[in-house]
Amino acid sequence: MVLSPLALLLALGATALAEPLRFVDCGSIDGSIQEVNVSPCPTQPCLLHKGTSYSINVTFASKIESQGSKAKVYGEMMHVDIPFPIPEPDGCKSGIQCPIQKGHSYSYLNKLPVKSEYPSIKLIVKWELVDDQDQMLFCWKIPVEITS
């Protein structure tokens, strides 16, 4: 079977859109990340358009038990973490059924709003989810570019 160039391009494009993001694990201690998805973000660095909200989905396995969890998000520039507010920092209200149990897998779901007043800049998004003891269930980083 010979594929036309257009069919080949469409097949490759569909595959690329469905792939999980390449991320850097930045210190997941009490959990292990299985997959990170930011939607829409077909290529990296993710182009984050001002005035748009992005869906975050992190699949991870917990190595501990915890009553709750809290997300902390930062924009990292020149190795400095600048806190980045998100609408819902409570992991138990973001797709995770609490209490968190050891050995279970969870899908953490949240939104990343990019406000219109943010500067157009390249940076690293660092996303942490901490447990009751303030230990990291997961921590991941991806490169992004905020654009108009």
Automatic annotation (TrEMBL):
What Pfam families does this protein's entry cite? Answer: E1_DerP2_DerF2
Ordered alphabetically, the record's keywords are:
Disulfide bond, Secreted, Signal
A GO molecular function annotation here is:
cholesterol binding
Q: Which GO terms describe its cellular component?
A: extracellular region
Entry superkingdom: Eukaryota
The reply to whether Disulfide bond figures as a keyword in the UniProt entry is yes
Which first-to-last residue range defines the signal peptide?
Answer: 1-18
**Which InterPro entries does the entry mention?**
Ig_E-set, ML_dom, ML_Npc2-like, NPC2-like
Per UniProt, subcellular location reads as: Secreted
Q: Tell me, in one coarse class, where this protein mainly resides.
A: secreted
Boundaries of every MD-2-related lipid-recognition domain copy: 23-144
One of the GO biological process terms: cholesterol efflux
Family per similarity comment? Belongs to the NPC2 family.
Name the UniProt record assigns to this protein: NPC intracellular cholesterol transporter 2
Q: What is the lineage of its organism?
A: Eukaryota, Metazoa, Chordata, Craniata, Vertebrata
